Amino acid sequence: MDYEAVIGLEVHAQLLTSSKIFCSCSTQFGARPNQNTCPICLGMPGVLPVLNRDVVEFTIRTGLATNCRIALFSRFARKNYFYPDLPKGYQISQYELPPAMDGYIEIDSNGKKKRIGITRIHMEEDAGKLIHGENLGDPDSSYVDFNRTGVPLIEIVSEPEIRTPEEAREYLLRLKAILEYIEVCDCNMEEGNLRCDANISVRPMGRKEFGVKTEVKNMNSFKNVQRALEYEIKRQVEILERGGDIIQETRLWDVDSEMTISMRTKEEAHDYRYFPEPDLVPIVISEDWIEDVRKRLPELPDAKKGRFVREYGIPVYDAVVLTTSRSLAEYYESCVRLFPRPKIISNWVMGEILREFKNDKREINESPITPEHLTRMLRMIEEGTISGKIAKTVFEEMYRSGKMPDEVVKEKGLVQISDEGELLKFIDQVIEENPEIVEEYQKGKGKLFGYLVGEIMKRSKGKGNPVLINRLLKDRLDREDRLDRDLTQG
């Protein structure tokens, strides 16, 4: 029997506000434990929360960017559960009246556009962090850091319309790009600023009813989300094919074993006992506020991708890669403004630059090669000062040292040889030393021309102008061929 997966994703994004959602404590990452705290975020008796206006605006911005309907009236609720890093014994979240609903994100699925619905986006506060003693040389104890307590989050809940792990990864990549473009979240998964839980079930192909779902947590990268879903689909299908039943439970993704592990079953699940938060008034959002936020939205990834194809004439594939992040797209456009050769620039950005960043795990805004570095080097190629091959060496040295290409070329003596007289010396030497190759070429083995060019480049230590070498060599060989024919005929 063939099965299909039914997947819904719940994404928590930490908002880029300087202070917490209900108090003025800093949201700075990496501070000394329990430094960024106050009586409000610690839940002390007698204190009252005050809503951070920027949190509401960032939520509106996210809702508009994901095609949601913005509710004019919403309110907070208390989500009751006990955990050591939750000082109040409840979390201020939202339940029946979220501020954004009924949106969607478009993804590419098997070469076609597919809409993944967004059920809701709501605001909430983060909990703290448990630090277990084995990491501190004290295996019998656990410690609590409340710095994250009260940090503002939005939860983005998708419809169960994702069918494959690949679609889930594509959805998350698109969502991440949108959040970065509108500058509401830096999406740093290593610092926990973007987190994802997945609800997944399988059902026989063609059946409308959903199967029993499991929830998978603890996935700290898009790659791990995809792997966890692949494993969970396989696990559930194997159980059903053996005639077993899927248990509704929460499972954790174990990175080391690449398996999901049971955390708690439905019978152990929390009853959160939501009720309206009595210490916060309802949120009223005006139409004017929504329109003001809409007008200030930047160009979003899909719109930018389409414009790159239209204005710069680059392939769709290039435009997709170059618009994966706002900073990468801005870097590319800065280069095009300085050196209006869009396809040449896209080749270098997608090739050398992104390869180096992947190896070094850097972001584009950390690049030692600025648009001025890259475009000056490309202009030197166009002017004939250096060859494309030499440019690879120049690029590597620029990346290591941060020096401008002119300086690198001067220091390394990498100026391209374009003097015809000097190149003809190398050409004549190679022709003289390879009479058999020349003869075979003249008999019709055209591929040997490349061999001769390579030998000439070796003689010039890679500095010879390849375009000029090709022309001069062809002229020389054609002349040799004519002389041979004249002598034969004579």
Keywords:
3-stranded antiparallel beta sheet, 41% helix, 490 residues, 9-stranded mixed beta sheet, 4 domains, alpha+beta, elongated
Write a structural description.
- By secondary structure, the protein is α+β, with helices and mostly antiparallel strands.
- It folds into 4 domains: 3-292, no CATH class; 299-357; 368-416, no CATH class; 420-489, Arc Repressor Mutant, subunit A.
- It is built from 15 helices and 16 strands.
- A hairpin with a 4-residue loop joins strand 13 and strand 14 (259-265).
- Helix 5 (301-312) crosses helix 6 and helix 9 packs antiparallel against helix 10.
- The termini are far apart.
Q: Topology, pairings included?
A:
Elements: E1 3-14, H1 53-65, E2 69-70, E3 73-74, E4 77-80, E5 90-93, E6 100-109, E7 112-125, E8 129-132, E9 142-145, E10 152-158, H2 165-181, E11 194-204, E12 214-219, H3 222-241, E13 249-254, E14 259-265, E15 275-276, E16 283-284, H4 287-295, H5 301-312, H6 316-322, H7 326-338, H8 342-360, H9 371-383, H10 388-401, H11 405-412, H12 420-433, H13 435-442, H14 448-459, H15 466-489
Parallel strand pairs: 12-13
Antiparallel strand pairs: 1-10, 1-11, 2-6, 3-16, 4-5, 4-15, 6-7, 7-10, 8-9, 11-12, 13-14
Helix pairs in contact: 2-3, 5-6, 7-9, 9-10, 12-14, 12-15, 14-15
Nearest-integer average pLDDT: 91
Distance between the termini: 82 Å
Portion in strands: 15-25%
Strand order of the largest sheet: 2-6-7-10-1-11-12-13-14
Radius of gyration: 31 Å
